[in-house]
């Protein structure tokens, strides 16, 4: 129900600083995402206008209860699959804290290495390509965010040789190991959060 501008704003920030807290909005665990740096007031107005337009469009046909049911039925059906694919294809290697480096003056190789060490790939197979929507090539996805997904496998050998040349670790995991690493990473992050706020 949110705008494409809202998604693009957050996704572009994620691509610039993957898994860097607090620069990457995708790892912000704050309980409220209503007003602040990651979601300006104009986005709240846009979300509100979306629901107003939605009720004006579908309300006469389905009534208030039917329109609300339609909203949640669609969200219920799409949410598990979208959440699963996006979370499982964005395999975090580590979550870092931004140390306020002068990112504008860094060298190209430092920017590239940040993209490489912040994530990893899932081994290529017909199933993995289909299941992840070709986002099993997370390293290539973060290096070339505008490249069509079905071309990532073509540049992967070049990226791998670049990593070898510069001593960067190019990680490619089986899908089940990657999923296990996600669960362990989330468990570790949750434990740190619980320790900081509840103990």
TrEMBL record:
Single GO molecular-function term? oxidoreductase activity, acting on paired donors, with oxidation of a pair of donors resulting in the reduction of molecular oxygen to two molecules of water
UniProt KW Thylakoid keyword:
no
Q: Which GO terms describe its cellular component?
A: membrane
Q: Which domain of life is it from?
A: Eukaryota
Tell me the organism's taxonomic lineage. Answer: Eukaryota, Metazoa, Chordata, Craniata, Vertebrata
Biological processes annotated in GO: fatty acid biosynthetic process
**InterPro entries, per the entry:** FA_desaturase_dom (IPR005804), Fatty_acid_desaturase (IPR012171)
Q: What is this protein called?
A: Fatty acid desaturase domain-containing protein
Which residue intervals define the domain Fatty acid desaturase in the entry?
50-171
Is Lipid metabolism set as a keyword in this record? yes
What keywords are annotated for this sequence in UniProt? Fatty acid biosynthesis, Fatty acid metabolism, Lipid biosynthesis, Lipid metabolism, Membrane, Transmembrane, Transmembrane helix
Span-the-membrane segments of this chain are: 51-74
